[in-house]
Amino acid sequence: xxxxxxxxxxxxxxxxxxxxxxxxxxxxxxxxxxxxxxxxxxxxxxxxxxxxxxxxxxxxxxxxxxxxxxxxxxxxxxxxxxxxxxxxxxxxxxxxxxxxxxxxxxxxxxxxxxxxxxxxxxxxxxxxxxxxxxxxxxxxxxxxxxxxxxxxxxxxxxxxxxxxxxxxxxxxxxxxxxxxxxxxxxxxxxxxxx
Length: 194
What we know:
This protein is about 55% helix and about 0% strand. With about 190 residues, the chain is mainly alpha-helical. It has a domain at about 45-165. Helix 3 (about 45-60) packs across helix 8 (about 135-155). About 25% of the residues are buried.
């Protein structure tokens, strides 16, 4: 999964994800120096499914004082991962269908059209063991999958790495010195075990 995540950062279809975001912004500058809005076309999901995935990721990691999943482009990441990994395609598609069917049974409308508080109530019964309801095992499995990919996508994005204060994003004017100044050959370190 991490190898696919690394590949995803180089995928030209992303409008927001990882370092591709800056490159894409540079490519979208108009004559007046303004950035044109990015358009992302889902590779695996239908536009309606993609809209629900985008909504779910934002509910899992919402924007607060820090950017949320939407700003990090997590739905693009999940779409790329689904397009690249046949093992998760059917579980994701079935899970989205289950979520919409469940919403229609309760409120006669798809998940995307439910009011926010009803969406949260439905997801609460999938996310928290204390709220599990019988007969929702398929929904619980789907939610665990979408939550796993949301967290993975967020914390491998530039925004997520900045939230973690990942040192690999910092540029150094001078490389930090070796902390072993008295032992430049590192003879005090244990021998590696192969």
